[in-house]
Amino acid sequence: MTPYVLVLYYSRNGHVKMLADQIAMGIENAGLEARLRTVPAVSAVCEATEEDIPTSGDIYCTEDDLANCAGLLLGSPTRFGNMAAPLKYFLDGTGGLWMNGSLIDKPAGAFTSTSSLHGGQESTLLTMMLPLLHHGMVLSGIPYSEPTLTTTTSGGTPYGATHVESESLSEDEIQLCRAQGMRIAQLASKLHN
Q: Measured on CA atoms in the order 113, 73, 49, 84, is the torsion positive or negative?
């Protein structure tokens, strides 16, 4: 099987999807396949269910997509300084992968989008990292050797790529997304071999 980096995200209004697309470009620039997957929304209505295939956008992630990845980038909008419920719900169902150790020693990172600069970007990234640590993954952020990290006036942190919601990503946000995707892909290549 050809190694791939899974870009698993939830995006309510399209902002996290914009980040995911740029991260995927960074992965592919590093020579690996980027596999974009999303998760369905959750509902407070017990009878509500989603179709098996979304009406538009990337397809829903399966346990096999996650188990067989060579690396993972996890994305979510910020919800009160935490990841969104649909992504948390998906991760809560990965106990079988945890029991089997399927994700141990695979590189991983996180990315997020907020509606304001101080909307909880770093705490959201940290909360997304906790389940990855429990899975035994090797976490990586964006090192300060990436010069855009010290000059950005929009999104971007050493914990992972971020976006302050607007109609499009800033050039800095694009650069940091691609740098993070490339970094995880390079680590995946090294660890996969």
A: negative
Contacts of residue 95, Cβ cutoff 8 Å, sequence gap at least 6:
none
Torsion on CA atoms 118, 121, 123, 124, rounded to nearest 10: 140
Q: What is the pLDDT of residues 62-97, one digit of tens each?
A: 999 999 999 999 999 999 999 999 999 999 999 999
Q: Quick one: which of 162, 153, 150 has its CA closest to 109?
A: 162
Cα–Cα distance between 63 and 5 in angstroms, integer?
Answer: 14
What tokens were used for 43? 């509902």
pLDDT tens per residue, range 134-189 = 999 999 999 999 999 999 988 899 999 999 988 899 999 999 999 999 999 999 99
Reported pTM: 0.94
Structure tokens belonging to residue 92: 């809560």
Tell me whether strands 82-83 and 71-79 are parallel, antiparallel or unpaired. Answer: antiparallel
Give the CA diameter of the chain. Answer: 50
What is d(CA 191, CA 87) in angstroms, rounded to the nearest whole number?
26
Instruction: Please spell the DSSP secondary structure of 78-91, one letter per residue.
Output: EETTEE-HHHHHHH
